[in-house]
Automatic annotation (TrEMBL), chain A:
The lineage of its organism: Bacteria, Bacillati, Actinomycetota, Actinomycetes, Micrococcales. Belongs to the binding-protein-dependent transport system permease family. This is ABC transporter permease. It is a multi-pass membrane protein. The keyword Methyltransferase does not apply. It comes from Cryobacterium glaciale. Keywords: Cell membrane, Membrane, Transmembrane, Transmembrane helix, Transport. Residues 58-238 form the ABC transmembrane type-1 domain. The chain crosses the membrane at residues 62-83, 95-118, 124-146, 180-200, 220-238. InterPro entries: MetI-like, MetI-like_sf. The keyword Cell membrane applies. GO terms for cellular component: plasma membrane. It holds the Pfam family BPD_transp_1. GO terms for biological process: transmembrane transport.
Amino acid sequence: MTTKVRERLVTAGFFVGLLLVWEVLSDVGVLNPSLAPGPRQVLGTGVMLFEEGLLYDMRVTLTYILASFAIAVVGGVLIGALLSVSATVTQVAEGFLTFLLSIPKSLFLPLFILIVGIGAAQKIAFGVFSSFAVIVAATIVGLAQVDHDLVRMARSQGATPLQIFFKTHLPSMTPTLLEAARIAMILNITGVLIAEMYASREGLGYLVSNYGQNFQVDRLLVVIFVVTTIGIVLNEILRGLELRQERWREGT
Amino acid sequence: MQANAEPITARGTAEVPAIEARGITHRYHTAQGEVLALEDVNVAAPQGKFISIVGPSGCGKSSLLMILAGLLPPSEGERLLLGSARSGPQPRDLAVAFQDACLLPWRTSLDNVSFPLELRGVPKAERNTQGREALAKVGLESFADRYPRELSGGMRQRVAVARALIQKPAVLLMDEPFGALDEQTRMDMGEQLLTLWDQIRNTVVFVTHNLTEATYLSDEVIVMAAHPGRILERVTIDLPRPRSIEITETEQFIHLRNRLWRLIRSQE
C-alpha cells in the first residue's frame, strides 16, 4: 500500500468517524436535534429537497458563479494588461488595488442594489466586484515577470503584437493567473452567495438565509453541504489545470 | 513559403551581399550620459559565407548583430538585406539564434521548433512534419515531446538551431549561441553546426568571443574594438572545407588564431 493511499484512507476514516460520533451524539440527545440534527436526518432532508427542486437553485447559483468568474478573469486580465502599459499607471493602480483588496466587499452591497437592482445582474456584478481585483493584481505581477528575451525571440520570427501577447505573455503568466484564479473563485462564490442572501427569491444563498430565518437547521445543513461541494469541485478543477503546468515549470 | 522553397543562392546576384551594415552608428543613454556603442560600422556578408564577429566585451558586437537582425533600430546608418534596405525583423529571409537558446519553456521541443511556422499560419500537420525533420537534422528526433527543462544545455541550443533553420533563412544570425556551454560541448556543437551548414550553405553571421570557435567555423573573422565599438580588421580564414575538429591542431589554424589573439590583445 503506497503512502498516498494510506493517507487517503486515514482522511476518509476520520470523516466517517466524525459522522458516526455526530450521529450518536444527536441520537442519544447530547446535541439538541433542532440545532444539530444527525447525519441520517440531514441526508433524508437532502433527498427531499432535491425532489422539491434544489437542483434549480443550484443551477441558478452556479450560473451566477461561472458567469461572474468568466467576466472577472477576462476583464481582470484585460484591465491588468492595460494598467501594465506604463510604469506610472501601474504604480497608481497598485495603490488603488491594495485598497480594493483590503476592504470588506459586503459593505458595498447596498450600493450595488441601488445601482443595478436585485436581478441576476446584481449577483453577477457583485461576484465580479468581489474577485476581479485579485486577477488584476496577478496580471500585473505576471506581466512584470515575462522574460523579455522570449518576447524578442518571438519578434525576430515575425510575431504580431497579438501573437506576442497570446503566445509569450499569456502562457508565461498562466501559472500566476491560475493561482490567483483559485483565490478569485472563493471570493467570487462568497460574493454571489452574499448577494443572494441579501436580496433574492431563488438560488442557494436565498435558501441559506430563508432556512436560517425559519429555524430549519436540517435544510440549512443540506444547502451548506451543497455549496461546499460546489466550492471543492470548482477548486479542484482549477488545481487540475495548475498541475498540468507543473511539467514545464522549473524547480518543481 | 514559395520563396523559401527556392535554393537560397538563387536569390539576387552573387555581387549583392546577403546582409550589409552601412555606416551604422549607435548611441544609447545611461544615467552617466550618452554612450557611443558603435561608430560608423560597415560590414558586408557575401552570400553563402560564414562570417564571425569577435571582440572584447563592450565592443558592441551583440548590438551590431541585433541591428542586423532588425531588432534594434540604429541611431544612424542602414541595414541592407539581400540588397535592399528593409527595417524590422524579416523572418522569411533572416533567422536569429540567441544566447541561452530562448526556448518557450511551456512548449515541447517539437512545438518550439515549429513556432516560426505557427506564426505564419502553417497548418498543424505540416508544421509537425517539418518540425520533426528539423529536429532530426540536429539529432533530437527522439526528444520531440520533451520540455526545455528536461533537456541539457547543449540539447536546448540544438533545438534553437533547428528552430532557426526551419525558417529556411538566407541569412542566419547567431549571437554567442554556444557561449553558456562548456568547452567540450561547445566544440561538439561547432562541429555539428558546420556539418549542417555544409548542406545548406546560406550566409551566417556568428558573434562569439571564443577565437578557436571563430577560426574553426568561419570564412572571414571580423575583429572589433571597443570604446567606441568599431571594426579593427578583417581576417580571411582560408582553411579548406569541409573542416573536421582535427584542423584546430594544424599549424595554419594556430597561426590564424594567434593573429586574431594579437589583434584583440593590441587594444588593451
